[in-house]
Amino acid sequence: MPDNIRERIRLKGVSKVFGRQANKALDDLRKGKSKGEVQQEYNAVVGAFDVSLEIMSGEIFVIMGLSGSGKSTLLRLINRLHEPSSGQVLIDDEDITKLKPKELRALRRQKFGMVFQSFALLPHRTVMGNVEFGLEIQGVPKNERQSKSQEIIDTVGLGGYETRYAAELSGGMQQRVGLARALAADPEILLMDEAFSALDPLIRSQLQDDLLEIQDRLGKTIVFVSHDLDEALKLGTRIAIMRDGRLIQVGTPEDIIATPADDYVSAFVEGADRTQVLTAAQIMRRPTTTGHPNDSPRTLLRKMERSGFSGLVMMDSSRKVRGYINLEEAIRQRDNQRLDMATLTQLPKADSETSLHELINLIAGGHSPVVISDNRERLIGIVDKSTLLAALAQGESMDEQNADESESDDMAPAEKSESA
C-alpha cells in the first residue's frame, strides 16, 4: 500500500438497535432472527447489525441502499452521533467508542465535517458569515477565518457571492455554501448524507462533478450516503450496499456491476449504465496470437487460418503494436517474401481505465479493434465490437471471459476482426 494511503476508518462488528429492549433484540439477531421479527417482538428498530468495513484515506466511500436499509444510521455511527449498541468504531486506530464526551467533541471538531440533505444555513448570515461560522466557534481570529473561508468559497465556485444571503441563492448554490462551511475547518473526514438528493437532476450532476474536482485538489476522506445508484457509481471509489441494516457487498463500482454478490444486488444494479462504469480492464481480451513484422504474408495467413479470425494485430519484439492486417490485405501480398508494413491499418488506442462509453465512441464507424496498452505502450489486450456487445448483454467480468477463453486451445479472440 502506498505510504500516503492508509486506513482512516474501521468498523468492527458494529450494531445499532433503537428501542427500550435493544439488547434483547440484538441477542435475537445474533441467533438468526430477521429485522422484521425483532421489530415485531420487541418494538425495536434495527439501524445496523454486525457491520465490519474499512475506509481508506483519500477515497470517496459511498454507502447506499433503499429507504430503511441503515445507510444514514451507519454514517452517524462513524462519528458517534449515534451510540453503537455493540462493536468498535476506530478512527486512525483510535477506538472512539471509549471516548468521553469532551474528548469526543474535540475529535469531531478536529477530524470531521458534515454536509446534510437540508442546507441548514443561517438565514441572517451572508455566504461568508455561514462559511466562517465553524471557525468562529473555534475561536479563530477574524482575519484568519475570513482568509480561510475566502479560499474555500473560491474552491466551491462561489467567488463573488460572499455578501449574499441564503434566500438570494439557488438550491445548488446553497448546498455549495453548506459544503464550503464543512470544508472551511479543514476536516480530515467529510461525512455527506444525501447531500445532493434535494436538488434537480442538472444541478445535482453539476455538484457531483464539482465534488470530484474538489476531491482531486484536496484529497479528503469522504463518506457519502446515497440512494441513487448512478450517483454512487459516478462518485464512489468503493461502494457499500446495505439491506435491512446488514452490509451486503463492498467493492469498486466495476466490482458491483460485474460481480454482484447476490440477487438483491443484481436487481439493485440492473438499471445501471454499464458504459459509464465498466472499463477496458474488465472486458478486454488477452492477445494469444499476433503477427510479427518479420512474418511473411503466407505465415500470417496460416496464423489467421489456425486462429479462425480474419485479421491479426502486428506486434514487434518489445510488444508494441505496429498496426493491423486483415485477411484481404494478407491475400493480396501472399506472393511477397516480406510484408509491406506501409499497408498496415493503424488501430485506435486506449488504456485499461478507458470506459466502455469511450471505447464505443472509438469503435463507432470503423471495423478495427481498439488496442489496450500499458503505460509503456505495450499491448495488454484488445477490445472489438463483439467484446463490447458481450459486456453489455451478459455483464461478464474480465476474469470470467478469460476463464472461458482458456478452455479452448484454438481460440484467439484478441485478433478477431469486425471487417470480414
Verbal overview:
With 420 residues, the protein is α/β, with parallel strands linked by helices. The chain has helices at residues 22-30, 35-42, 71-78, 101-111, 127-131, 133-137, 142-155, 171-184, 201-218, 229-235, 253-258, 263-268, 280-283, 297-307, 327-332, 356-363, 385-394, 398-406, and strands at 7-18, 45-56, 60-64, 86-91, 94-95, 112-116, 189-193, 221-226, 238-243, 246-251, 311-315, 321-326, 349-350, 370-373, 379-383. The strands form 4 sheets. The protein has a 6-stranded mixed sheet, with helices on both faces. Helix 1 (22-30) runs antiparallel to helix 2. The longest helix has 18 residues, at 201-218.
Q: Describe the sheet with the most strands.
A: 6 strands, mixed
Radius of gyration: 27 Å
Strands across the major sheet, in which order?
6-7-8-3-9-10
Q: So how many helices?
A: 18
- Low-pLDDT ranges: 395-420
Q: How many extended strands? A: 15
Structural class: alpha/beta
Portion of residues within helices: 25-40%
The separation of the N and C termini measures: 46 Å
Approximately how much beta-strand content do the residues carry? 15-25%
Shape: elongated
Chain-averaged pLDDT: 85
Short recap of the structure:
With 420 residues, the protein is α/β, with parallel strands linked by helices. It is built from 18 helices and 15 strands. The protein has helices at residues 22-30, 35-42, 71-78, 101-111, 127-131, 133-137, 142-155, 171-184, 201-218, 229-235, 253-258, 263-268, 280-283, 297-307, 327-332, 356-363, 385-394, 398-406; strands at residues 7-18, 45-56, 60-64, 86-91, 94-95, 112-116, 189-193, 221-226, 238-243, 246-251, 311-315, 321-326, 349-350, 370-373, 379-383.
